[in-house]
């Protein structure tokens, strides 16, 4: 295994650690604003990366996927909420679920701007920011997949999907999703969409 592969894997993990913190913070902050103190009690209303690391989803899987050339995927430590405490009922649950992916999309903007800014002066920083741009967009898409513990599963809960279905998704859904990303066009599409969207953002700032 060559040095470049190891460096790429390390950079991918570093970006995951950086990007999952604001993602999970957004969930926790919105839940707090809607009256649920569960994230506060868990210490989730913070931007400290260590508070949001899931060793499997943030470290091991992103590193393994990068080393094996199997694409990119991962997640942070899920922020637990109590739907019964959320103001707005189903609407509140949806707002909490969407907060994380929305934060990832928002983060793509300054990262794309930094990519354009450093493109001519520091290639290493520009490449790092570009990687962060498409990775944060990818995380937004990945987390909207309707599989526990990802954010899309909260939308199923808000839609009152039967508990037995949610239990089965929690048991095998994530495995099936990973297999689908590796062995079907799903993973390639998610990656391609993220990269193409990133370049569009970078070009917008390059013209400014």
Care to describe what's here?
With 208 residues, this protein is mainly alpha-helical. The chain has one domain (3-207). It contains 8 helices and no strands. It has helices at residues 3-33, 38-42, 55-68, 90-118, 123-143, 152-158, 163-183, 185-207. The chain is globular. The termini are far apart. 37% of the residues are buried.
Termini, distance in Å? Answer: 41 Å
* Quaternary: single chain
Strand content bin: under 5%
**Helix and strand pattern:** HHHHHHHH
Globular, elongated, flat, extended or rod-shaped: what is the shape? globular
Tell me the domain tally. 1
Category from helices, strands and their pairing: mainly alpha
- Please give the share of residues in helix: over 70%
Strand segment tally: 0
Q: What are the segments in which pLDDT stays under 50 over at least 5 consecutive residues? A: none
């Amino acid at each position: 295994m060559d040095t470049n592969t190891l460096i790429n894997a390390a950079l991918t993990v570093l970006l995951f650690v950086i990007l999952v913190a604001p993602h999970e913070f957004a969930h926790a902050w919105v839940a707090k604003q809607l009256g649920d103190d569960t994230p506060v009690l868990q210490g989730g209303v913070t931007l400290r990366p260590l508070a949001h690391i899931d060793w499997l989803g943030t470290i091991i899987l992103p590193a393994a996927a990068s080393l094996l050339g199997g694409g990119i995927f991962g997640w942070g430590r899920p922020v637990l909420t109590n739907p019964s405490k959320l103001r707005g009922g189903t609407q509140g649950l949806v707002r909490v679920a969407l907060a994380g992916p929305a934060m990832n999309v928002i983060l793509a903007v300054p990262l794309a701007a930094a990519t354009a800014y450093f493109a001519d002066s520091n290639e290493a920083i520009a490449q790092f920011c570009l990687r962060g741009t498409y990775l944060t967009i990818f995380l937004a898409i990945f987390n909207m997949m309707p599989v526990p513990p990802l954010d899309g599963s909260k939308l199923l809960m808000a839609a009152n999907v039967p508990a037995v279905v949610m239990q089965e998704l929690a048991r095998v859904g994530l495995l099936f999703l990973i297999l689908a990303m590796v062995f079907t066009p799903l993973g390639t599409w998610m990656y391609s969409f993220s990269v193409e969207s990133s370049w569009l953002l970078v070009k917008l700032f390059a013209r400014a």
